[in-house]
Amino acid sequence: MAMIIRASLALFSRNSRCSKVSCKLSEIGGGRLFSCSSPLFTCSVTAAFTNMSPPKKICILGSGNWGSAIAKIVGNNVTKFDQFDNEVKMYVYEEMIDGKKLTEIINTTHENVKYLPGKKLPSNVVAVPDVLEAAHDADVLIFVIPHQFVKRVCQPLAGKLKPNTVGISLIKGFDLKEGGGILLISHLIKELVNIPVSVLMGANLAGEVADEKFCETTIGCRDIEIGRMYRDLIQTDYFRVVVVDDVEAVEVCGALKNIVATGAGFIDGLGYGDNTKAAVIRLGLMEMIKFCEVFYPGSKLGTFFESCGVADLITTCYGGRNRRVAEAFVKTGKTIEELEKEMLNGQKLQGPFTALEVNHMLKQKGMEERFPLFTAIHQICLKELPPPGMIDCIRNHPEHMCTFDQQHTSLVNSE
Ligand SMILES: NC(=O)c1ccc[n+]([C@@H]2O[C@H](COP(=O)([O-])OP(=O)(O)OC[C@H]3O[C@@H](n4cnc5c(N)ncnc54)[C@H](O)[C@@H]3O)[C@@H](O)[C@H]2O)c1
Asked: What subunit structure does UniProt give (predicted)?
């Protein structure tokens, strides 16, 4: 762990000299709107929503591992604030489990036996199998479905939502744009249902959050009042929220870290150690920063030091399904699709698909060589490159071509 922290600091100090997504040390955290709740914020938000508008109805779209963990938090939190209606609807993609409908099981046992077994959901969380019925009267929509299903879940909602509905996406990944390029999932949702969409990303493995083990998260939201409302809805004493205004960078971090975690899994599968994995994490972070620099100019370096950045990268490269499946991929020689079916019990993998989406755009723009780690990970997933190619990739990574003289010159020039 010390190694990773050192690697991150080295990265920061180097990046502050070399990268265009740059800032001074004192500016780290500069995109924050606010972090810990203060009584003042809590009172003012409560007043704003109780005095001026009826309680907000909340709907969670998705009920997988993360969707269920967040339902546990939101179901409890709505009862603590007058600004929220006490019932939370949760859209559940209907499945039969031992001859019974999953929605019926959730509504009678208050447990999502398939995706979050062993954890009780609050009884005010109501499972609804019809997406329109779940969402049509909601004031706040929480999108938490695997990114592969966003279109089919959102399409029935187009033109059917209340006028002032707002949304927040917890979804990691991109969508392929017709005619080329990629689209952020929050932008896709906005296109499909025409509501403002914030994002929440962080070092939040669902099982640990459901066990109420302490962690932090990052909300990207440009509207301070809405940001406060999300914080009240989602923050607990074990799940701490920081709200920043650098929305795109928060979302890009959440998507790209799953590619890096896939690379970390390859390293584990090849039998390398923590030093090697730290190199993958560091180079992965450099490519994430570069990606924002190239495709989302104006992103802030400080965002990479929030929970959505370096913290999520570390947790996903050590825990999580992408790393686990990638390790098995190297050890068994099976395909990603086979392993997803065998190992995940209906849960969806994000890393290899995000690598494919990113590669689609990089290839089109002739930029594969500028992102060699993302490119190698994608090629390994497709079996176009044997897994040991990861080591050649990191050995020859352009980040190692930055010479002392160049660094020294940039440092002198930046002072
Ligand atoms: N699990 C985590 O630890 C975690 C943490 C942070 C963010 N996320 C992100 O949250 C998002 C949701 O992940 P998750 O872990 O809740 O899901 P999951 O992979 O655990 O579950 C899959 C979900 O997809 C649904 N589904 C299956 N087929 C479907 C279909 N045809 N149409 C619609 N829905 C269908 C299932 O009902 C289930 O709810 C992903 O983008 C993921 O990256 C996950």
From this structure: Homodimer.
% of the chain residues with pLDDT over 90: 81
Is the distance from CB of 261 to CB of 304 less than 8 angstroms?
A: no
In ligand 1, the atom with minimum distance to the C-alpha of 62 is 39
Asked if residue 392 has pLDDT above 80, the reply is yes
Ligand 1 atom 23, closest CA: 64
Residue among 90, 94, 97, 115 to mutate when testing ligand 1 (max atoms within 8 A of CB): 115
The pLDDT assigned to 405 comes to 54
- C-alpha 346 chain-centroid distance: 19
The CA 20 to ligand 1 mean position distance, Å, reads 35
Judged on CB neighbours under 10 Å (0-12, 13-18, 19+), 407 is middle
C-alpha 264/C-alpha 283 separation (Å) is 11
Q: Helix 274-295 crosses helix 247-269 at what angle (to 10 degrees)? A: 150
Pocket of ligand 1 from Cβ distances under 6 Å: 62-67, 93, 115, 144-147, 149, 152-153, 170-173, 204-206, 346-348, 350
pLDDT digits (tens, 9 = 90+) for 199-224: 999 999 999 999 999 999 999 999 99
Stated as kind and residue range, the H or E segment containing 100 is: strand 100-101
Contact, 82 vs 238, CB < 8 A? no
Q: Which atom of ligand 1 is nearest to the CA of 349?
A: 19
* 413 has pLDDT over 70: no
Q: Which of 257, 277, 290, 300 is catalytic?
A: 257
24 marked as binding residue: no
Question: Which comes out higher in pLDDT, residue 274 or 16?
Answer: 274
More confident call, 375 vs 413? 375
pLDDT at 25: 56
| Secondary structure class of 319 (helix, strand, coil) | coil
67 is in an annotated binding site: yes
Q: Are 249 and 304 in contact (CB under 8 A)?
A: yes
Judge whether 257 counts as a catalytic residue.
Answer: yes
Pairing assessment for the beta strands 174-176 and 182-184 based on DSSP bridges: antiparallel
Cβ(334)–Cβ(244) below 8 Å: no
From CA 80, how far away is CA 233, in angstroms rounded? Answer: 9
Asked whether the predicted pLDDT for residue 282 surpasses 80, the reply is: yes
